[in-house]
């Protein structure tokens, strides 16, 4: 969280009480992000902010790098996110290597390569559609043309996202032809919808970009006066209250019942472009509440390759 965000939260707590600005929940020690140093048949070693850490794995441990792989297929230098077992930090339960996400509107296509604009001033993303996964992608994204939305999970390869599986179903119309939603007049402090994820470090490891370890959420309904920078959002299909960076969200994963309080650290304008459902554990309300950082998403029980989970968000009443 930025210094201005912390100051805003402290001010809210002073004026309205601690309940209006609850303390963020630290990332659970079960979740680790680091760089692969070595991998054997029995264990692998990561370079993390805490130093080199070793993790054992069991027959049930899942390794994913665009698809399931063996532990010995981890490569030195791979950026990795680990969720450890309930018993502690020693046994790896799930491991994701070089995982990436590409979400935005298509601005250019050349053969099997797309260029996406993710909005809110972020760099454009190059997406490669490998032949082996292109069929799966096009089933749910049939219009790979400029102006249409795209959202897929894959891996980083040479600075581009190699798409492995779609994260949602593409809307049937270009973004500019999306139905205009009337502005919401009344907001609830409790909202049900979808939580997705994004990587603020764009695949860079924590020793190159400290945002790789950042906890928190990007939010699609930021108050323009309470956000540093551009947030090119639209009216969401959910009745989301306007918030500022530094505010906190209480989130519950409705699939696993995990809960956490996370700070709002960025804009998620692209979340307001989608009005989709998440099939993770049965469909609920359509629309996206927020995009968690990778570590926060995994800590709340999310599976990065799935890309979403159904959630309930509670925002403290901030009226004086």
UniProtKB/TrEMBL annotation:
Positions of region (Disordered): 206-225
UniProt-recorded name of the protein: Uncharacterized protein
Organism encoding this protein: Nocardiopsis alba
Organism ancestry: Bacteria, Bacillati, Actinomycetota, Actinomycetes, Streptosporangiales
